[in-house]
Amino acid sequence: MCFVSYIVTFPDANMSDMRPPFGSSTDLSEARDRLAGVAFEAIWERDLENDALRWDENLESIFGYRRDEVASHLGWWRERVHPEDRARVEQTAADAIRGDAPGWSNEYRFRRKDGSWAWVASRCAIERDANGRARRAIGAMIDISKLKEAESQLRQVLDTLPVGVAVVNRAGDVVLHNRASSRIWGGLIVPGQERYAKSEGFWHGSGKAIGPEEWASRRAVAAGEISRDELIDINTFDGQRRTIENYAAPIRDQDGIITGAVVVNGKTDEYYAVLDQAARQVASAHVASALSLFPGSYTVRLNNSDVAANLQAGAMLELKPGTVNVEVGTDEYYAVLDAATRQLASSHVGRALGLFAGSYTVRINNSDAQADVRAGESTNVPAGTLAVHGSTDEYYAVMNNAGVQLASAHLEKPLAFVPGTYNVKVNNTTTPATMVSGVTTEVKTGAVVLQGSTDEYYAVVDSAGTQLASAHLGHALSLVPGAYRAKLNNVALAVQVDAGHSGDYQSGSLNVKTTGSDYYVVLDGSGTQLASKQVNQPVSLPAGRYTVKLGDNTRPAAVTAGQAVVVNW
């Protein structure tokens, strides 16, 4: 089997180095004045002793929050950091504050005023006293959503290519790669020094080992050399033997300085190898090409499948391998395993692999089928397509009958499986799906959304009260059709999810208007506390009758769906 390989390298820098740097001056006031004129950055200043936090006016132009909507405490910012990013971001800041770092930086999702999420890059400098104790920090937050979108689009393009792509910097460190590259090399080693030390390659034909400095990517960076049609044999990181064609070219900046090289791996044709009785490779050739050998006993290897060959003087020995293929309409790869479940080879669906006669296991998305390959014959492994439909930006998972996850994909992206019965899981709701060869099995989810006017989250629970998923008010969740309950501030609301439809439910809001900064409590009919909020701040609730408690005083309140109720105290 042969693969094509290109290599590209970039400068020794991470993506954040491409963004405007934050000054390291200890005069934070001067730094604040300098940064305040940058219209695309929201400048913030945090008192590290009491967690007071102040923002400049750019917060409104970039993220939509007016000055009178922004509270001057850390909690206001924390509530707007995506729940999946919050712990990581806060830990980074805490480590920098407790240590002796000059500042910290992070990338995370921040909620805009309209409820949408922005990817932001935030960097800051810390001011410390004479004892090294952190007193305050000043930083800048920039919206990098378009950059993230471009990175995502590039990733999608790379992952749809039938060839593997890897990007390395001058040190050889991998900074970008696609799935096909990892499959071809049997894994990924990011650090260049370690990868070159562990990579095992041999010049095809001579069998001479390739040294760390002889790889085409190294020569491209070091000397600007362009390499073409290098046929080499590699031992992959997962223990397989493959033949690849290698191409490499240097990348230069506008001043002509070499900044790196690019690697693309793609299957071309297949090669067979001949091994002697000591398992040493003595020759190789393209399938259907003849080799001249001295009489003797050999092993012939094709895609890591072996057959014994006894060559007699003056005789022509013709070996006829068979082929195996998975014909299905998805953009995926299948693998072939031997009886010991060792992976022998892999290929894109629709592209056959040559193998010597024998029994094999063909695996696609961790679903297995047995394949008996016969000499000179083509074996097609049956597979079906699973399409899970949904209207939200979410993922589904496919499980086997033992509850083990086999694969996952974005809603509307199909996956291939061998025939059988599986379970499809969306936001912890499950439905069975039967796969039939050559048939597309469609699963239609529905969606539910709880609308509300406050900056709060709702949850969806099943009949046993187990939480299945949660989302911000106004954001929909995809679920398997059925009856559920939406829970908002500990109040449950019955909801129905129908296939192909989005159920829209309304909450109302309750607010206590008065002077001061006390907190009010909302109770249900049995006196159980449901929620609490600072006075003059609304809380969303399903329609119903409640009791509001402020201090030792209580008052009844009726909440109506889609309306704001104000209790003047």
Question: Can you give a write-up of this model?
Answer:
This protein has 569 residues and is mainly beta. The chain folds into five domains: 2-13 and 149-267, 2-Layer Sandwich (Beta-Lactamase), CATH 3.30.450.20; 20-143, 2-Layer Sandwich (Beta-Lactamase); 331-378, no CATH class; 382-505, Sandwich (Immunoglobulin-like); 508-568, Immunoglobulin-like. Helices cover 13% and strands 48% of the residues. The strands form eleven sheets. Strands 1, 2, 8, 9, 10, 11, 12, 13 and 14 form a nine-stranded mixed sheet that branches. It has a five-stranded antiparallel sheet with strand order 4-3-7-6-5, sandwiched between helices. It has a four-stranded antiparallel sheet with strand order 16-15-17-18, with no helix packed on it. The longest helix has 16 residues, at 83-98. The protein starts with a strand and ends with a strand.
